[in-house]
Structures are given as structure tokens and as C-alpha cells.
Amino acid sequence: MARSLIARVTAIAFGVELAFALAIPVAYLHLFNIERREDRALVLAIVGALYLVRTAALIGFLASLLRPIERWLAASHSSSQPAPDLTRRAARAAYDAPLLFPLVWATSWLLFYLPVTASLQGLFADRIPLSARAGEATVLFGFSCFAAALPLSYALLSWLLGPVAGRISLSARERDLALPGRRLSVRARLVALSLSLITAPTVWMGVNAYMSQIWTAQRNLAARAGLLADALEHQLAGSSDRTWEAATRALSTPLDVVAVATTDGAIIANSDAARELAAAPGLRFRLARALSRAPAETVLDPSAQRALAYRGIPAGTGGTFPGAVALVISREPGRDRGGELFTLLFFALVALSWAPICAGFLAGSIAGPLGSIRAVVAQIVESEDADRVGRIPIFHRDELGELAQGVNEMIDRLQASAERIRRYGADREQLLAVAARRAAELDAVLDNMVEGVFACDRSGGLTHTNAAGLRLLDLSPAVAVSRATQEPGTGGVGPLHPDGRPFSPAELPLARALAGEIIVEEDEVLENPSSHRPVFLRSSAAPIRDTAGAIAGAVAVARDVTEVVEFDRLKDQFIRVAAHELKTPVAILKGYSLMLMRSDQTLSIRSRRMLEAIDRGAERINRIVEDLLDISQAFLDALHLSPAPVDLDELARETVAGLRASELHRVVVQREDPGPMTVRADAARTRQVLGNLLSNAIKYSPAGGTIEVVLSVDRAAGEARTSVRDSGVGIPTQKQGGIFRLFYRAHTDTPHDYGGMGVGLYMAKELIKRQGGRIWFESREGEGSIFSFTLPLA
What we know:
This protein is α+β, with helices and mostly antiparallel strands. It has helices at 5-21, 23-31, 37-76, 84-123, 134-174, 186-236, 244-251, 272-279, 281-291, 337-382, 399-447, 467-473, 509-514, 562-599, 605-635, 648-657, 683-699, 760-770, and strands at 256-261, 267-269, 297-301, 306-312, 325-330, 452-457, 462-465, 519-527, 534-545, 551-560, 644-647, 665-671, 678-681, 705-714, 719-725, 775-780, 784-792.
């Protein structure tokens, strides 16, 4: 099948063309009024030879265009798929050949008869004289042939190559290859073909009418010459040759030359005729040929625009030239309406047979793709399974091709959507199973939690409560859902704040969470209805939001921390009692050691150092006891401060002056702002914070150096800043995150571990925060640290 493509296309295309090509030489002969049999045979021989050469060249060109398609068809019938490059070249040939080859084909008809006319005018002008306007007429004749051949060849090639192009397009689509080829819209094709259909008969009728006028004028001219020749024949009958000159001169006119000639064409009377014959070699040639065949004849020379008629003079006429002829050369135009009507009717019949064939092929090239599109669309409408819908071949690169491509893309999207829906269905089933399993796991986890979990919808209705929550609510599972937005323990006395104030409904955690607030470990106090003992709860709550961010409900977690609170209370009591009991012996130790060092001047150096060590140990135990008391008060929120206006500069200098002297360190106070530095703070607690920071700076600067206390004021922020800067060992980067945590020691297990409980920075942070300030630090290991805190201006 692949090898028969070129033969099939060539046979059909040039077979259809041949039916019309046989009529075109007949039109050419009629157009130029070539009537003699031998002249027509010569013209047809030239046309036939040129047609064979032209057809062979066109077939070779068409074969070169269609060769990639042949190769693609051969490869598609083999076991392997055609290569992508071959598919692209075959698609380009299938789409470009119906556009390119008709132009070449029609152009060959435009130029075909120009060499025929040139040959007749150059080589056979004497034998077949043509009109002086033969060149212009041939161009118009070729243009009408071009306009007739263009739609016929395009319709043929589109009809023959459209199915092949459709197969190639489907193969390219399966391999995700872009379709090449020139795009020509249906509008442009219809306009071009319509113009061709109009132009072909119009140009032909115009050139035919134009040439008819020329040939009619030639025939009229010949008729006039024949009348004058008859008149001269009658006038010369019975006269002598001495009177012929006068007779010919008398009958001659400005458009007619009357003369007497011998049977071999020599002029006897009126030498003007000899000059006329010299100016028209074709006329002279045809005169000599006619004299040898017929005694009376009319001869035309369209190229010289002359007609010649001669009549034999009777043999009994007196004179020295027996067998002479009466000769007339005329220039009078005339018309032959019969020949013009014949030519017009002939080509009207040709046009009537040619136009339906072109229209049929053209309609097939448009209706075929539309039918394929309609069939696929009907299949989409009727079929429930999008996977079984086929694809539309793309016959042409135009609007119809784009429509087919759009339908193919729609089918692809339908199939992709169907596949996604199937996947979504499978995923949905899987997700539902996973969600059910996770819901069961979540229920099991919630039911085994110590904390009570409560969830409600946006209206406040309780939607979920675990077993611990039901125990807190003192409800049975049967009635748990019927309870509205009650909080844990609302079956008895309402919840109270730790300070004894009752909770209002708007203060309940779930109600506040429904308003968008997030509650983290807020304490509540309830009364156990059976034992009438306080129950301490610690609740957290948060809103539940949907995908749009709107609040869809709330969830709360409540934990019974009664034992923890009791333990904290007992621990605080223990710390208080232990601290009180420790203070007495520490005070006794410190007092007696100081008294011995002051009163007994006979103590040895060793004894004095031992007493000093006892004093330092007692002082350290005292500080530890005070730190434990402060931590206890901070945890119980019983750490009371007394803010008052304090001169920060004076407080800093007093704190520095009260430090224990160090031989390696120098502590200086610097002010960056000369104005007043009055802050609102607890003087004693602020002095405790600054002293703690200075003590750490001295402790972690073993090499000594200057420790700076820098004071500054930010009037815009309404605060004063105090910074303690040292050039000591610094804090390791990986340990800086927990520097303010309780009992955290950054230099544990290092050469710079100087002891301590790790409570100083924690208390410094608590004291500054409770006074409305901030505390932070900057440190580089091996370069020192800067600890800063702010206090609000008074």
C-alpha cells in the first residue's frame, strides 16, 4: 500500500486533469483561428510534446513531496514504530503537499502555452501567421488555465491526502509530537477558490471576445478583398494588358491595393502590390501556396493585419500574359459572429462540467472532517465510558483541523478527569477507612487519658467528652451529650478563680475559645459536692477552625491538679519552715565567728582564716536560704514588690560600692544620657538584680579587667536601660538558649564551673518582668558577655 501511494495519487490526479487537458488545445486553435488541418497537426504536436515534458516534471516533483509519506507508511506496516523525525517529515508533506503542489501545477498551466506561441511566431510565422496580439492573448489564456487548474488540483490533492494526514496526526498525537506544516484557514481557501472559480470563465470570455474582434475584422477584411477581386476580374475580362495598369489604379483605395499578377505571384500591374507583399512575408508565402492549389482564394495574414484575394483572369482575355490573376490586398476589418458563438458555447459546456467536479471534491474535503468530528462528538454524548472514545484525524491544518485538535484535547481532558475521579473515589474509600481507624484510635487514646477532654460546636453544644471528662462532670455517658456548654465540675458549685472570685459565663474556657481566644493552663477551683473539699483544675482551650478560618467549635482539656497543688503547698511550707530553722543556726554561726574575730586579738592567722571561712560558709548558706524563699514565693505568686520612683544612677553606684573588693577587677559606671534617670521600681529588688549580674561578671572574668555598668534612657519608648559588660569567658553558643531557666548552669563540667545553684538569672528575669521591664543578653565565647535590662521611667 505504501508503494502504491504515489502511483495512485498520480493516476487519479493526472487522469482527471487529462480529461480537461484534451480540450485546452482545441480552445487554443479556436482562439488563434488555426483552421488548416496541417497547421493544427503541427500545433498539436508541439503541445503534446510539451505536455509530456511538463507532466513528467510534475510527477517527479509530486513524487519527491510524497516520498516521506511513503517511507512513513512502509515503517508503520513494519513491527517498529516510525521514527519521530520521519513522522514529522511525513506530516509536513501530508499537510504542505495539498498547498504547495497545486500552486506549482496551476503555474505550469499559466506558462504552458507561452513557448507554443513563441515557437509559432519564431519558427512558423510564414506557415502559421498569428495575430500581432498573440502574446497578450496567450498570457490571458494561461491565466484562465491557472485559475481553472488551481481549485481542481487543490480539491484533488486534499481529497487524496486527507486520510493519510489523519493517520499521521493520530500517530503523532500518541507520541506527543507537535504537528508541523503550513496553516491555511478555511476562509482563505474558500476566498482563493471562489476567486479562481470566478476568474477562470471571466478571463476566458474576455480574451475570447478580444480575439473574436480581431478575427472578425480579419474576415471582413478578406471579404472586402474578395469583392474587389471579383470586380477587377469582370473589368479586365476582354481587355488588353495595356489597360490593366489604369484599371488597377482606378479600383485601388487607401485601404485596398488592386493589382494583376502572374500565377507564380509576380506583379504585372500596380507595383504598390509588390511593396505590400514585401511588407507581409507570411501573406506572400500563403499566396504562393494558394496559387499552386486553387484558381480563386482568399488569404489572411493576421500578424500583418492584411487580407489578400485573387481571381483568375479568363484565358480568352487579350494580352501578353495568359493565366494572369486579379489580385487585391485589403485592410478593412470585419467580424465573424458564428465562430465567436461556437467558441463561447464550447467553453461554457466545459465550464459546466468542470465546476461541479471541483465543487464535489471541495465539498468532500470539508464534509469529511466535519463528519468525523460529528461522529466522535456523538460517541462522547452516547458513551458512558470516556476511555472508549476514539480520536479525530486532522486532515488539514486549518480551522477544521484546529476544531478536531480541540475535540481531541477535550477527550484527553475527559479521560484524565475520569481517571482522576476514579483515583479520588479509591482514595476517598481508603481515606474513609483510615479516618475510621484513626477515629477509633483517637477514642481509645482519649478514653485512656487522665485529662478530661471536652469539644463543642459553634453554638456551644457539647459534642464530645472522654471518660475522664465525664468523671469530672460527674455525668453518665447516657446524658453527657445533652449537657450544653457546662465546664468541668458545673454539676456542683460553680468554678472559682484561685483568688476566690467566681467565674462568669463569659470567662469559662470553652466560651472564651469560641470567641477566638487561646487559653493555656488556666487554674480553676471547684468544690467536690460529696466531700465539700476544693478541687483544683488546670484548663487549656483553643478554637476549632474550618478551612476558611472561621470558628467551627472549641476544644478544652482539664486536668485535676489537686494533688500537685497540695504538694506545692506542702513544699512551700517545708521550705519556709526549713529556711526559718536554718536561719537561726546560720545566724548563730555567723555571729559567734564575727565576735571571735573582733574580740580576740590573740588569734593566730590560721585560726582567723578558719573563722573567716566559717563566716563565708554561713553567708553562703544564708544566700541559698534567701534564694529558696524567693523561688518559693515566685512559684506561689506571692513575691510582692513595692515600686516607687528610684534614681537609677544612684542605685547603680550604691550597688557597685557595696560589692566586695577585688584586686583583679575594676567596676565603673557610665552614663550615656546626662538627663535624669528616675525609674519606677522596687529599689531593693533592682539592687538584687544588678548585684547578681555584677557578681556573675566578676566570677566569670577570672583574668580580671574592667566591668562596665552602662546606663542609658530611651525617652521614646519610656524606659531606661542598664547593661553590665564584661570581657570574661562568655557563654557557649549551644547553651545560650536556657540561660534564664531555673537551676540551669551553662558552665557545668567546664574549667569555668565556679559553683552555684543556677537560680540567680532566673530570679533576675522574674524580678524585672514583674516590674514591667525586659532582660536579655549578648555573648560570644571567649570574648565576654553583655547582660541588659530595662525599667519603665517614672
